[in-house]
User: Fold Glucosamine kinase from Rhizobium giardinii.
Amino acid sequence: MAFLIGIDGGGTSCRAAVAGPDGRILGRAKSGAANILSDPDTALQNIIEAARAAFVEAGLDPAGICEACAVLGVAGHNVGDPVHHVQRRLPFAKAQIESDGLIALQGALGDKDGAVAILGTGTIYIARQGQSVRYTGGWGFTIGDLGSGARIGHALLQETLLVHDGIHAPSPLASSVLAEFHNDPREIVEFARLAKPGDFGRYAPPVFQHAEQGDVIATRLLAAAAVTIDDALDRLVAQGMQKLCLLGGLAPLYRPWIAKRHQSRLAEPEADALTGAVALALARYGDDRSSAA
Amino acid sequence: MAFLIGIDGGGTSCRAAVAGPDGRILGRAKSGAANILSDPDTALQNIIEAARAAFVEAGLDPAGICEACAVLGVAGHNVGDPVHHVQRRLPFAKAQIESDGLIALQGALGDKDGAVAILGTGTIYIARQGQSVRYTGGWGFTIGDLGSGARIGHALLQETLLVHDGIHAPSPLASSVLAEFHNDPREIVEFARLAKPGDFGRYAPPVFQHAEQGDVIATRLLAAAAVTIDDALDRLVAQGMQKLCLLGGLAPLYRPWIAKRHQSRLAEPEADALTGAVALALARYGDDRSSAA
Assistant:
């Protein structure tokens, strides 16, 4: 029987796991960035490197990846050209490229119905009911991703300009941001002009920290951001979702900000996205072929 | 005595007026775009063309512009290089380049103290007390210009995605925008990715129109936008401004949305920006040299 490979390819690093035909994970490893959209060739290289390293970690011959069956979760899985480019060059016997969200959902919920809210630099919601998987939100920073780290950071910088102009009252958080930009609003404007979502997103964790200390601006920004998350969770509940998992880097920070009406539905994730990728590989390529794609 | 020239240089057109030594306007004319930042040479050409045409309109020899004294109001007047480029090449005997906002304020308030809120594709506030002129806001679309046409249009497209996702309830306005994009959220995302502030701003007037008909989304968006204007006006009032003028393309639309506490301070502008430029030219270069710069 062939080994199974799960890949969790992200913009910062690529993680891989190898499992036996029964789905039990034998080894894990990590390599560099696997951003299929911005750099498909480097992504491909790091996917292969992580897979080989996982085999080595498991005490297996890394040449074995060529006979293994893989499921990969990546950002931008539905953007045609770069995905085809990578798909054609993967060295595995069989491979399917899925969204990073789907492997995260599989890891978090196992085979149960429910939904995940992925709260990181961006935000996206994925609901599964039986075989049906539905995506909500996730339209990106420019016009979507409400409540995301990028949007929180953007709102903070905007608020800092209002404080500088004397339109809003100052707070320790706004003062610290102003000081970082040498109290020069033009520096903030210039930063924002060039900033990518990840650059804005780096200002989100401090907002949560300051809110804990009662900072009025941080509290106002997070109350507004949490409403956008609650609104989206309302939609998932209306679709029949009983179990909700918060995932992503901001999930633990957001937990206390989520409305009471949703708290009883929040569940801890069963496992991580990499485990989810292996589980999907098992379902599709494992001993039990009944649910193979 | 030399003639006086006022120039109102905008991104769409350039207007010029010529006045006698007493400041009485003798002729007006208009030419093409005068965007000093994006195309200083074309701007220069259109400034000269408008000035010459104003002389012709007044029955004067257009060669006379070389002996005239001018005040020009332009966007981006404080951005070094392109302004120096234009300043050095102006054919007038004397000339000063000011902000488009300052000539608008001069036109609206005459020589009185007070403030103007310029509500168009962007938003900026200018307050004058005696010789002191203070700018508030106007940091641009990315991180400022709250309440502007661009921000209202952006908020509408964002809201339309939330309606598409079933997170917010629909409204006639959101449905009409969705229909314009063939009910395909990806078309909205792609539009937003490439849109400049003016592209977003074109969606602002329909928001005001739909709000008048009771559209819930339009009403919510404008209520939120008006709060940002009211907050800025609060700041101007706290600075001692008793007289406020709303200027710019959205001014008449915004008027009923401004908070009651400000309504008694709102005044109609005395004259337009071009008249303001001529008035500044008179003050600086006219017969009465007492307030010349």
Observations:
- The radius of gyration of chain A is 21 Å.
- Chain A touches chain B at residues 136-137, 139-140, 142-144, 146, 154, 157-158, 161-162, 165-168, 185, 188-189, 192-193, 231-232, 234-235, 238 (CB under 8 Å).
- Strands of chain A lie at 4-9, 14-19, 25-31, 69-74, 94-99, 114-119, 123-129, 132-137, 244-247.
- The domain at 4-109+270-291 of chain A is CATH 3.30.420.40 (Nucleotidyltransferase; domain 5).
